[in-house]
């Protein structure tokens, strides 16, 4: 809610007056909007939310005070949704959800704890099926293992099915070593 609209609503509710320069359409809009607002004993504008027969009254916050209210409600760094719920349970202003999201997006402590900024997941790359057996082989190196009695099991597979055309790996650190370079 704009500060000027806030002041216009306060003037109308407190003194049943409109601003001198108000047009007929502005007067009609203020009159309609005034039905969901009231003034408390401290001359603060209150928003009345009447849902399901339960009326809840929340303090209307001016543009100047919004950031400090969000900061106060966000002291536990509970995240966007819980901070919004805390603000929304006690206060009202248009665009609250976006303001809370924007504030948390720029909160250094929240961003350093955010899981999205900590880990980067590599995108999956679709793998096509080879035209024949042993045409494409996926490998992942592990080990070291104890020496086996049988020698050269991969060579035996090569003799049986032919030479591998393509090797696919997860690009692990094992392939960065100089012994694998051609």
From TrEMBL:
Coiled coil ranges: none
InterPro entries according to UniProt: Integrase_H2C2, Retrovirus_Pol_polyprotein
Superkingdom of this protein's organism: Eukaryota
Span of domain Integrase zinc-binding: 62-115
Annotated protein name in UniProt: Integrase zinc-binding domain-containing protein
The species this protein was found in: Mytilus galloprovincialis
